[in-house]
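Q: My labmate handed me this sequence with no annotations at all. I'd like to see what the chain might look like in three dimensions before we decide whether it's worth expressing. Could you predict it?
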Amino acid sequence: MRFRLMVWVRVSVVVWVTWSCGWGRWAVVLVSPGRHTMAGMSTSSRRRLSDAPFLAAATGGVPSRRPVWFMRQAGRSLPEYRELRAGVGMLESCFDPELVCEITLQPIRRHGVDAAILFSDIVVPLKAAGIDLDIVAGVGPVVAQPVRTVADVRALPRLRAEEVGAVADGVRLLVKELGDTPLIGFAGAPFTLASYLVEGGPSRHHERTKAMMLGDPETWHALLGALTDIAIEFLRAQLAAGVDAIQLFDSWAGALSLAQYREYVLPHSERVFAELADAGVPRIHFGVGTGELLGAMGEAGADVVGVDWRVPLTEAVRRVGPGKVLQGNLDPATFFAGSEVVEREVRRIAHEADEALALGARGHIFNLGHGVLPDTDPGVITATVELIHSLPMPL
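A: Here is what I predict for the chain of 395 residues:
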């Protein structure tokens, strides 16, 4: 029997019994009335995994093999995920530590990827802070009261670490279960969070977002400042619980021009990375359709810059500049094209990665240019991981 003991500042405690992520081991947990989070893990107790291929590449070292993981590797492409999530809402899943742990582990068991990424959603810290929103199937995040005025911005709540205690609990369970596999934590970037809040949900053109950004820059920067604070607090909670790397997702930044990005977005993303630099873990920056923004995104302060499939890695290194690790950049649709096409594209990207290293890139992590698509055959993903691991390392 394995026990987890959590100690609180308050003296009064009650005892509950819950399942751990091991799905069959009991854990006795001491909790204080009115609270559900565990005591934080100090960053000094983070696992030492410098030899893990993902972390070696992310820090500019020489990995023992080509590291690979996939965005949305834990998700609807896996039958075990669909079975586990049946009848359970997305946000409910994200605040259940045992579900978070189990779902995060599923692609590690099935595919043998070199890193786990925490199962969560970029709007989780907004929900935790008290913003009225839901994730609607087939639509995405929907905000009950969009943020469109200076009064709305002033009314935004701040995020406290205890409000994402369930997420941190999931991280702690994972740290115990993952062995020598690194765990990536993540948050949504301030611009992408702002787009959801201002638009009220997903948007093709981001017209209300851009209207505030261009027409009322003072309110805009106040909004992004508040969202930067939320992103930092969310990532700090994950780091304190033991994640080994962090990724900032700017899913909608590709809607911006380079000038817009530099003036209205870059300073805030830069602050996220700057305030987390002392954590001593690799920091990854990723956006979709951001080929023209790669140079500016590289300036934000991340150690690793994600590249989507629209820009070859050999061009990406020129835009980002030397000294950064590149991550990417297989088109997710390639998985539907047959094994010969997948192998050809994987080998092409590996070759481009080797050339990018010669041009000054500090390393390469194989990934997709976006997330795994829901109808992807998981067997194809597993075979792709095996292929990538079999490829020789550059001389």
